[in-house]
Specification:
Elements lengths: L1 E6 L3 H15 L4 E7 L3 E2 L5 H6 L4 H4 L1 E2 H7 L3 E4 L2 E5 L4 E4 L2 E2 L14 E3 L2 E4 L2 E4 L4 E2 L7 H4 L6 H25 L3 H4 L1 E6 L3 H19 L11 E6 L11 H13 L3 E3 L4 E4 L3 E4 L4 E3 L2 E4 L3 E2 L3 H4 L10 E2 L5 E2 L2 E6 L4 E2 L13 H16 L15 E6 L3 E8 L3 E6 L1 H19 L1 H14 L10
Parallel strand pairs: 1-2, 1-11, 2-5, 11-23, 13-14, 13-19, 14-15, 21-24
Antiparallel strand pairs: 3-4, 6-7, 7-10, 8-9, 12-20, 16-17, 17-18, 22-23, 25-26, 26-27
């Protein structure tokens, strides 16, 4: 019986493990092993809602061990330290409780699981991506990121603390607005940066309604987006990009397009034109790259450290190793461009690999074909903009309530892939019934 090891439990890796477990794993034809450094899964496109306090991650996290038990695969918790392609082994680091993320990690606390090794016949790299600082001086040292739930929760706590401290300074000393203001700078005008900015504005207004602080939601909590390109959301139609920018400006969010960051300090972001942007908190959302694990495999990679894959998603140089999602570089043979790091890419590649790896007959593997269904960007409760792609209709621009409904359905489709239609339907009903009893912003 062959062993298929999947490194990374993100949207693509977990869905692949679930599909393979339900097929060849349940039938005893293969042993499916999923490896991830965290004991729980969270859908990464929603991390900005965790950072703003809108969504409680504990409610929406999924335990890998439970998913493994229900879908006939094995889960091993720990960071992948080394992959030896010669002996076909994956070395997994020890797992500790009370580690770096508060619920378990790779350092600190008591060791629960020792360092281990697992042998594979086929290996799938699904380790996602991490923030790319592009070697900008001070960016890594003085910026916050949204790579994980831990990062998002850290930002939320610091943001709430900054608002409360500024409000206290105003109340105690009657400080001028310039002294009491909270300055947030978001570097990167893609989906993550835009969605985070809108959610933060909604959070500030909620805090004011909660009487948590006495700051003016717009004038005293200043949110600024710095984007190197000439417009926000370059993946969208220019008209929709301009519409999103107008929405943000109407919310009091400053948009600085065509602005290149030259240096990041602890209290400011400096651009190439010499302007200083005061910042109490800087969030880096300007791009991603694959983790260093991909470099250690000594396989062909691109400038973002993504492993090059063939049309069958096999890595170039080792047909026994596959790669999907953000850590892979798949160049579309139709137009010669690489697929973007998006959830729908990881989903489609997981579906493709689940079919390919379940095949028991020998022969050449089919080629992956990507279909772009469009993009949707949420502007919190204020609006949603995007475009849908169809064979008959082409590109259709959507915004407002319809776009908001479609945007929310993306997470439900992810849940359906993991839990099935019945359980997802029950989750929707439960969420609808309990929503009025939950706070609009998580304060603790």
């Amino acid at each position: 019986m062959e062993t298929i090891v999947i490194v990374g439990g993100g949207a693509g890796g977990l869905e692949l493990a679930t599909r393979l477990g339900d097929s060849i794993g349940a039938g005893g034809h293969a042993k499916i092993v999923l490896v991830d450094r965290s004991p729980t899964h969270f859908w990464k496109p929603l991390l900005h809602t965790v950072a703003s306090g809108k969504l409680d991650p504990q409610v929406h996290q999924l335990d890998y061990s439970e998913q493994a038990a229900n879908h006939h695969f094995h889960f091993m918790c720990g960071e992948v330290l080394r992959i030896d392609r010669g002996s076909r082994t994956v070395e997994i680091g020890p797992y500790h409780i009370d580690g770096i993320d508060g619920i378990g990690g790779i350092e600190g606390g008591a060791e629960v699981l020792p360092q281990r090794r697992v042998r594979y016949d086929k290996l799938v790299l699904a380790c996602g991506a991490i923030t790319n600082f592009f070697h900008i001086p001070g960016a890594a040292e003085h910026s916050l990121t949204l790579d994980s739930v831990h990062d998002a929760e850290s930002f939320r706590k610091r943001f709430l603390a900054s608002c409360m401290k500024a409000s206290l300074r105003r109340a105690e000393s009657g400080a001028a607005r310039a002294d009491a203001a909270v300055n947030i700078v978001i570097v990167g005008g893609g989906a993550t940066g835009v969605e985070l900015a809108a959610e933060l504005r909604h959070t500030v207004r909620t805090l004011a309604q909660y009487k948590v602080h006495s700051l003016d939601p717009v004038r005293d909590v200043r949110i600024r987006i710095i984007e190197r390109g000439d417009r926000l959301l370059p993946q969208l139609n220019p008209r929709l990009s301009r519409r999103a920018a107008r929405y943000l400006r109407a919310l009091g969010i400053e948009v600085c397009a065509s602005t290149t960051v030259a240096r990041v300090d602890a209290d400011a972001v400096h651009d190439a034109a010499g302007e200083r942007h005061a910042s109490d908190m800087t969030v880096w959302a300007a791009g991603v790259e694959a983790p260093d694990l991909c470099l250690s495999l000594r396989l062909p990679v691109n400038r973002l450290k993504q492993v090059a894959v063939s049309p069958s998603l096999q890595t170039v140089g080792d047909p026994g190793v596959f790669a999907l999602g953000d850590c892979s570089s798949y160049v579309c043979p139709v137009n010669g461009t690489a697929l973007p790091p998006r959830a729908q890419v990881a989903h489609q590649q997981a579906v493709f690999l689940a079919e390919v790896l379940s095949r028991r007959q020998e022969g050449p593997l089919p080629a992956f074909q990507y279909r772009d269904y469009g993009s949707l960007v949420s502007l919190s409760e204020y609006s949603t903009v995007g475009s849908l792609m169809g064979n008959l209709t082409g590109s259709v621009h959507v915004e407002g309530w319809l776009a908001r409904v479609l945007y929310r359905s993306l997470y439900r489709l992810h849940q359906r892939a993991l839990f099935g239609a019945l359980r997802t339907g029950l989750l929707v009903v439960a969420d609808t019934l309990t929503r009025p009893t939950r706070p609009r912003t998580k304060l603790h």
